[in-house]
Specification:
This protein is an alpha+beta fold and 331 residues long. The protein has 11 helices and 10 strands. It is globular. The two termini are 27 Å apart. Its EC number is 2.7.1.43.
């Protein structure tokens, strides 16, 4: 039996990055890009290396370009971390796994390091495949926690639950990570929203701007941990935008939603350094009349647009920056 498992890219629409600080967010799952896992029984446990795991290069420039585009670690360490946390979960919950091994093969079309949650998609797809292979059921609201621990505990990456929640639930989800809820239950309150009420959305990304999200967010984490009042207050403001976003979506008030998206990014600028190239991406989109904010840590933006004429203008203007524009397909 061959198990075929998938998890999709995500875009943070509002509240990002307050999820790691007991905040609130709205995220959506994007079927345009995804991570794909094939898993089948074999005599030994094998993780098949892919192009991202290669240690052989045509020349020094090929190595440089590869490292700049996909980083240094590839997908194998991520899958190892996911498998370990799955095993840890089963041991903790007294689940005895069948005595059988597997080969796992992965592929991902999610642009790397541009804030669309490529690493967590590989982890979620791996966990889903393992659950099916060993016939283990991890509750949906717990699965994001297991995925997060694979990155935070096993790989030392600074991350929040937002990415993992939307990749498990899919669609459009409002998430409330308030401190009391998290302390009492260990997970947030996750409320699916109606995708049919979403406005016209565009997504643009530029792989040359990619950054490892954990490193980008370290700047905010350091200030937050020191108790910086400005940072804490700004994160609370950003979180409140997600609640306002629910009202705007339900009322289909897309002008207000666009204003909230812009406010999300503008507040983010108050507590972290934004590169000149990323600012150029945001400003170019806004000069076309669209709203714009990061989908995640930078390198990709999302926003609302009014009509096809504005979308054409976005495509034309952002292409000059070597940025690709797509219409996100929400699952």
């Amino acid at each position: 039996m061959i198990i075929d498992s998938r998890a999709y890219a995500r875009a943070g629409l509002l509240g990002n990055p307050s999820d790691g600080y007991f905040g609130k967010t709205i995220s959506l799952s994007i079927k345009n890009f995804g991570a794909h896992i094939l898993l089948f029984q074999s005599p030994e446990l094998v993780i098949e290396p892919q192009e991202a795991d290669a240690n052989s290069f045509r020349n020094i420039y090929h190595l440089r370009d590869t490292a700049a585009l996909i980083g240094y670690n590839g997908g194998i360490p991520i899958i190892k971390a996911a498998i370990k946390k799955f095993c840890d979960y089963c041991i903790t919950n007294n689940i005895r796994l069948a005595n059988k091994n597997f080969t796992i093969r992965y592929n991902s079309t999610i642009p790397r390091q541009v804030g669309m949650a490529g690493s967590s998609a590989i982890i979620i797809a791996t966990l889903k495949a393992l659950m099916q292979f060993y016939q283990v059921e991890i509750p949906l609201h717990i699965l994001p926690n297991v995925a997060l621990e694979a990155e935070t505990q096993e790989m030392g990456i600074n991350a929040g639950l937002q990415d993992r929640v939307i990749q498990c639930y899919e669609g459009v989800v409002h998430m409330d990570f308030n401190k009391d809820q998290m302390a009492q239950h260990g997970h947030g309150v996750y409320t699916p929203l109606d995708p049919n009420k979403m406005p016209k959305l565009y997504l643009a990304y530029k792989t040359q701007l990619g950054k490892v999200s954990g490193k980008v967010l370290n700047e905010i984490r350091a200030k937050y941990d020191k108790g910086d009042e400005h940072t804490i207050a700004t994160l609370q403001t950003i979180a409140s935008l997600a609640d306002e976003g629910i009202k705007a979506i339900e009322a289909q008030d897309y002008n207000l939603l666009g204003e909230l998206i812009n406010a999300n990014f503008d507040n983010r600028c108050k507590i972290m350094t934004i590169s000149e190239s990323n600012m150029e991406l945001i400003n170019t989109a806004r000069n076309c009349g669209a709203s714009a904010s990061f989908t995640g840590s930078g390198g990709a933006i999302i926003g609302t647009y009014q009509d096809d004429e504005m979308l054409k203008k976005l495509v034309y203007s952002l292409k000059k920056l070597n940025a690709r524009v797509i219409k996100p397909y929400i699952i």
